[in-house]
What we know:
This protein has helices at residues 3-11, 17-36, 49-52, 62-70, 83-92, 115-124, 138-142, 153-159, 171-181, 218-227, 241-246, 253-262, 274-283, 305-314, 323-337, and strands at residues 39-44, 58-60, 76-80, 97-99, 130-133, 146-148, 165-168, 185-186, 203-204, 232-235, 249-250, 267-271, 288-289. By secondary structure, the chain is of the alpha/beta class.
Amino acid sequence: MSMYEQLKAKLSHVVPDAELRYKAEIADEINRLKVERNAVILGHNYMEPVLFYSVPDFVGDSLELSRKAAETDKDIIVFCGVRFMAETAKILSPDKTVLLPAKKAGCSLAESITAEDIKHLRKRFPGVPVVTYVNTYADVKAESDICCTSGNATAVVESLHSDTIIFLPDEYLARNTARETGKHIIFPTKDPKAVDAELDYQMIGWRGKCEVHERFTVEDIKRAREQFPDVVVLAHPECPPEVCEAADFSASTSAMVKYVKDSKAEHFLILTECAMGDNIAAENPDKEMLRICSIRCPHMNEITMEETRDALLKTQYVIEVPEDIRVRAYQAVKRMTEIGGAGKRD
């Protein structure tokens, strides 16, 4: 069966036929280059459907993908995701060439905090352990005690057995985790003269947000339920806490995929990056994803079939992480994976 026929069988109800024909030719070229260059291609859950179902060797969450790539004998890792994901692959696979199929492919959440911000927080809250979401850049991970994913944030916080935690940088994931762990959370100002000792807190958060997930509202859920009373609503933990509370299920992208697959429900509303809804729909043709989602991540959208091909053709956009930063960042990631059952999802 040709690539076009494979894609048509999977995506004809999701992607226009003209797009399938055009991109199938590029997919054939990418798969040929992949073999010639001894490369492995990783596709994050947020990749557009044709790319997601045609060229990756592995698909899933960012940390899960980085770990799988580290286990292969390939020379090159092409990470179809955003920059912090490619950096994590380099942290875990320092001897491999890691390529990002876009010139930047940044992230509003990762860019909301810097390594210097963490250093300042440590001075203001001496001795308090720092938990950092994996959706951050390598230098930020290097300044942290331990990383977490959206799927294991609560387990990581509880594993530290500390009365007080610094949890960075996602405000909503922090609020959701504080609720689950019973901690009172504060968001300190950046004023270095602030008197933090007078504040009542058990968790110190940060005002970082994902520009996609922060846009979902409880009204979105209400409107969906009015039209489809039987709809099952799934929300990513980067959504506002009131959205997660109003949803039927809130968890990582991999957990969402499994939930839909295992559920007997017919209608779903997926409150996360919209391409993922298309990918889930393609995998579950007997179930309907409500098409009220119109929010695409502009950074994920920079990853295209053409850029993926050019990355392999030109060894383009190589990801480098300075060794001193990589080693310290690796320790933060490693500590997370040593927690029982943790580190598998983001």
